């Protein structure tokens, strides 16, 4: 029996989407439903989960207010510092670097990703520890410098770890830039600086927004870097979750915190999308 | 540790030949030969030698792999090599950072552990949650209750049933680098004062509510196990006051102490012995005002996939000849007088590992309720996020 065009197209669509849909349903939707169910439960007497229907866990969220506050502060600050470092790099790669070397330079940005973040963060522990940079400073007479286990070390680790995620989207949006627009701007008498601010920068903003959203969202769940470079003294939601599941075994409270975190991520993403739409004047911007 | 590893690894063909020649010459016993070459299991299964390896468990099918959950730096790798050689069972070792983490994993299920190492205060909880079952001591003939120091082994028994057999005991004391810290550190009161004074920015506390809150309570003159709200409030006040002075909140303190990034830390016996052995200026003291004494046990999870192998390894580890090597490697004190008799004098004479009885008197065993108390968990979260 011959299929109509529409039926055929529908079949192809189904076949193409089936693997991803099954995957997302089993490994994202189902666990999320389990998490929501846990979050309205109670902690068992010796920890774990006990069936119940209560919003007590959500009412208790202020007990982790500090973790939320630290995280909601760190995520945009970390993203901002990433942006400050990433934008000039991406601009250089996309606009200034000679096309012959561009591919090599871009791959240099990506190469660190081939090594586990854990290993690279451990390397920072040795660089910042007293046998690393402080030891060198000591040799030139600057004694007793402490770098490891400070908020500055955490920020450094974050900028280092997330930089490629910020550089790449900005690079892509700058690379797509139509050079004729820059020439037109110059022809009309704009100085390079005003060309940058009124042409280049606005046209690269979708890339900037993508990078900022990507880094901010990942930072909201960051656990490793504060734990290793902050000496466990810097407490984020990720750290709170690990403690609740593995130390005090308060699964319902941990679930409530995780559900709330997901809600925050969704809101952040929607706001970022709206801003990106407004800036570019179109709804054709995809953030991630 | 590497020395032991090499000495005991019975693998190379050349060594096998050498041992065989020694056996033929009669200079070693047949038992020694079978043990050291790993032919023990084959002999036990095929020949059914009565009394050989002295364990009925070995007659069962042990499979080819088993899984052990334990603590970091806590075993001699050669022990497992020897066990594999004797039984044909390879041991997969999983290392954990806290009892809560082990409990969380067992509660979640599907661990596949056949033997694990819980600490004294968790055993009644495991038994209550039906996660472990009473041990069949007939399968552990190498264990002798008469040679055990019951002070450390009592908590393996719940409601008259033996759920866990002792591994070793230990204490939680203070390790400090005497090159850097010149103040007197003999108590937990001193610890928190020095941490805010001479060792500011250089002291570490555990990322573990039981010991960190417990030792803060002790320094204020309260019980290590207190769950009284007013006493916990005072401990919280102290911890939050100390926090800006701390180098880190981390139970993995050996790297920082070795690198002299940290000068002083809360420290478990075996880590203290290892640090002091390698870096003599790192001293280990017990709080004169109190602190924790503990014992670790072996238990078999109810969900174990390969119980025969779990019992076989347990019995193997209860053999004093094997246990003595474990104790030399990990530096923790033994509960078994048979093992004590085999240990070299420099181990038994080490005051870090075997302190004077008087130093142990003020110490307390952690209690089950201390581990699971939600108020202490919340206090720890406030301390860490402060």
UniProtKB/TrEMBL annotation, chain A:
- Could you tell me the keywords of this UniProt record? Cell membrane, Membrane, Transmembrane, Transmembrane helix, Transport
Q: Pfam families per the record?
A: BPD_transp_1
Predominant location category: membrane
Keyword ATP-binding included in the entry's annotation: no
* Keyword Transmembrane helix attached: yes
Per the database record, which ranges form the ABC transmembrane type-1 domain? 68-272
Which parts of the chain span the membrane according to its record? 12-38, 67-91, 103-127, 153-174, 195-220, 251-273
Location relative to the cell? Cell membrane
Against SUPFAM superfamilies, the record matches this protein to: MetI-like
Q: What is the recorded membrane topology of this protein?
A: Multi-pass membrane protein
Report the InterPro entries cross-referenced here: MetI-like, MetI-like_sf
Name the protein family. Belongs to the binding-protein-dependent transport system permease family. CysTW subfamily.
Name assigned to this protein: ABC transporter permease
Provide the organism lineage as a comma list: Bacteria, Pseudomonadati, Pseudomonadota, Alphaproteobacteria, Hyphomicrobiales
TrEMBL record, chain B:
What Pfam families does the record point to?
Answer: SBP_bac_8
List the InterPro entries: SBP, Sperm_putr-bd, TAT_signal
Query: What's the superkingdom here?
Result: Bacteria
The protein's matches in Gene3D superfamilies, at most eight in alphabetical order, are given as:
Periplasmic binding protein-like II
Keywords from the named record = Periplasm, Signal, Transport
Per its UniProt record, what SUPFAM superfamilies does this chain match?
Periplasmic binding protein-like II (SSF53850)
Q: Where in the cell is it found?
A: Periplasm
Q: Main site of residence?
A: periplasm
This one is known as Spermidine/putrescine ABC transporter substrate-binding protein
Q: What is the organism of origin for this protein?
A: Shinella curvata
User: What is this organism's lineage?
Assistant: Bacteria, Pseudomonadati, Pseudomonadota, Alphaproteobacteria, Hyphomicrobiales
């Amino acid at each position: 029996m011959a299929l109509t065009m529409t039926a055929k197209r529908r079949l192809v669509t189904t076949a193409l989407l089936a693997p991803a849909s099954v995957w997302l349903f089993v490994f994202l939707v189902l666990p999320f439903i389990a998490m929501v169910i846990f979050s309205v439960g109670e902690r068992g007497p010796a920890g774990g989960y006990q069936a119940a229907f209560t919003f007590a866990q959500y009412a208790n969220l202020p007990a982790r207010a500090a973790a939320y506050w630290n995280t909601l502060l760190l995520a945009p600050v970390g993203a901002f510092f990433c942006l400050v470092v990433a934008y000039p790099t991406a601009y250089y790669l996309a606009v200034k670097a000679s096309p012959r070397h561009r591919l090599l330079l871009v791959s240099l940005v990506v190469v660190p990703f081939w090594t586990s973040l854990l290993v690279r963060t451990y390397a920072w522990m040795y660089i910042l520890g007293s046998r690393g940079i402080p030891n060198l400073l000591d040799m030139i007479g600057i004694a007793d410098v402490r770098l490891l286990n400070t908020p500055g070390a955490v920020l450094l680790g974050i900028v280092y770890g997330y930089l490629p995620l910020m550089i790449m989207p900005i690079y892509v949006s700058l690379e797509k830039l139509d050079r004729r627009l820059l020439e037109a701007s110059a022809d009309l008498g704009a100085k390079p600086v005003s060309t940058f601010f009124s042409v280049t920068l606005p046209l690269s903003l979708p890339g900037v927004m993508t990078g900022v959203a990507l880094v901010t969202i990942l930072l909201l769940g960051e656990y490793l870097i504060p734990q290793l470079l902050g000496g466990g003294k810097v407490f984020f939601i990720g750290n709170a979750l690990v403690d609740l599941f593995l130390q005090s075994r308060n699964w319902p409270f941990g679930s409530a915190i995780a559900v709330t975190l997901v809600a925050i991520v969704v809101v952040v993403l929607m706001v970022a999308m709206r801003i990106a739409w407004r800036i570019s004047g179109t709804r054709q911007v995809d953030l991630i | 540790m590497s020395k032991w590893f090499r000495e005991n690894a019975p693998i190379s063909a050349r060594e096998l030949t050498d041992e065989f020649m020694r056996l033929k010459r009669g200079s070693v016993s047949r038992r020694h030969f079978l043990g050291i070459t790993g032919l023990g299991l084959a002999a036990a299964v095929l020949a059914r030698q009565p009394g050989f390896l002295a364990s009925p468990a070995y007659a069962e099918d042990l499979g080819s792999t088993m899984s052990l959950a334990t603590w970091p730096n806590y075993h001699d790798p050669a022990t497992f090599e020897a066990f594999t050689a004797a039984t044909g069972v390879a041991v997969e070792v999983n290392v954990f950072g806290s009892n809560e983490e082990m409990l969380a994993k067992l509660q979640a299920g599907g661990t596949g552990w056949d033997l694990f190492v819980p600490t004294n205060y968790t055993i009644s909880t495991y038994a209550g949650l039906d996660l472990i079952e009473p041990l069949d001591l007939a399968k552990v003939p190498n264990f002798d209750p008469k040679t055990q120091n019951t002070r450390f082994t009592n908590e393996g028994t719940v409601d008259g049933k033996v759920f866990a057999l002792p591994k070793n005991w230990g204490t939680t004391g203070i390790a400090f680098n005497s090159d850097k810290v010149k103040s007197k550190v003999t108590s937990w009161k001193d610890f928190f004062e020095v941490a805010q004074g001479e060792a500011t920015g250089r002291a570490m506390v555990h990322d573990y509510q039981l010991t960190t809150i417990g030792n803060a309570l002790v320094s204020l003159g309260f019980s290590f196990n207190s769950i009284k709200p007013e006493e916990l409030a005072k401990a919280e006040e102290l911890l939050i006051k100390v926090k800006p002075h701390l180098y880190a909140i981390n139970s993995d303190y050996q790297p920082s102490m070795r690198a002299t990034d940290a000068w002083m830390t809360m420290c478990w016996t075996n880590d203290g012995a290892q640090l002091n052995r390698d870096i003599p200026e790192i001293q280990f003291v017990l709080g004169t005002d109190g602190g924790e004494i503990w014992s670790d046990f072996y238990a078999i999870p109810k969900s174990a996939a390969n119980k025969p192998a779990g019992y076989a390894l347990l019995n193997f580890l209860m053999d004093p000849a094997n246990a003595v090597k474990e104790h030399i490697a990990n530096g923790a004190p033994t509960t078994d007088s048979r093992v004590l008799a085999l240990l070299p004098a420099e181990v038994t004479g080490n005051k870090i590992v075997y302190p004077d009885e008087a130093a142990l008197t003020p110490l307390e065993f952690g209690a089950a309720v201390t581990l699971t108390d939600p108020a202490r968990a919340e206090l720890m979260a406030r301390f860490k996020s402060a």
